[in-house]
């Protein structure tokens, strides 16, 4: 008996696309559930230190940093950290310190680093200046509203909460590359986090906001435990869970200001991201192909048409995929309180295909380029420096 390989392969691709359909439906449901009114603990406002590691000038850096200086919160400190006293960000930070003389702010300049992850090394240099029991670590390319701190700190009223983290939405600062980057964050990454949170206990944090109890951080080994890991946010949440603490996803969504100077820069960032996830969650990363419904539909439809001649069914598969991709766009924009926009909607299928290509390329190498330095990412996210960036 001959094995009908073409039909077996066709069936396999159709099943993968069916899994994509189920995933997108679950993602839309998860996005809708997150957008419903939520009850959170209120009134818990302990003193907190905001830690801001900075390296260079991000898009709208002054406005981003300033948004943390005008919080409606009774008592907080901000510690900024840079590695180079000639960093252009120093001027902006000193301007903010002068602008808000009554706010407890300090700038730490120290080029030393515990390990390969220079951001973590920067945080470790800042740690001694942090005065309070609670720490909020927030990337420099994020912007927040006045009630951010209150929303983030509220879950700590429960003593078993060790980490609070936030979703973030991408706001393009200009250009097609930035628009595509924002689309990935809003319409792929954000829903994937909500799906993960819906089906299992959260065991990771996100760099846009990592709020922690100081005693929990010390218990897991401090910043030194994260010093050689590219996925410091993932590892922080994972270690918190291992030590009996819960990781809570806040109802607050941070704004991430994105400026990608070129298409190659966008690809480099997304490849680094994909290879980081592959190193920490290899099985989950392999199955994440179902996130990209348009390319899985195109492959399934093409094989179905070529093998069976059922081109009408093939067209229906593609039409369903594009329709569900559009529904995802509307669901996410509704959750974020944004008006649907033409170009993100029109470019949705192309964005899916690009994400699929990045996913495939993530398996070809373990090397990434991070701020001009090449690293090899080993299992678990451990990073080691290599001689030069991958060509």
Output the keywords.
391 residues; alpha/beta; Spore Coat Polysaccharide Biosynthesis Protein SpsA, Chain A; 8-stranded mixed β-sheet; 3-stranded antiparallel β-sheet; 49% helix
Commentary on this structure:
Helices cover 49% and strands 17% of the residues. The chain is α/β, with parallel strands linked by helices. The protein has two domains: 120 residues, no CATH class; 222 residues, Alpha-Beta Complex (Spore Coat Polysaccharide Biosynthesis Protein SpsA, Chain A). The chain has an eight-stranded mixed beta sheet with strand order 3-2-1-4-7-6-8-5, sandwiched between helices. Helix 3 links the parallel strand 2 and strand 3. Helix 2 runs parallel beside helix 3, helix 6 crosses helix 12 and helix 9 packs across helix 14. The termini are far apart. The mean pLDDT is 93.
Count of alpha/pi helices:
14
C-alpha geometry: globular
User: Could you spell the SSE succession in H and E letters?
Assistant: HEHEHEHEEHEHEHHEHHHHHHEEE
- Based on secondary structure, the structural category is alpha/beta
Count of folded domains: 2
Mean pLDDT: 93
CA-atom Rg in angstroms: 22 Å
Q: Tally of extended strands?
A: 11
- CATH architecture identity of the largest domain: Alpha-Beta Complex
CATH superfamily of the largest domain: Spore Coat Polysaccharide Biosynthesis Protein SpsA, Chain A
Q: Tell me the CATH topology of the largest domain.
A: Spore Coat Polysaccharide Biosynthesis Protein SpsA, Chain A
Arrangement of strands in the largest sheet? 3-2-1-4-7-6-8-5
Q: Helical percent range?
A: 40-55%
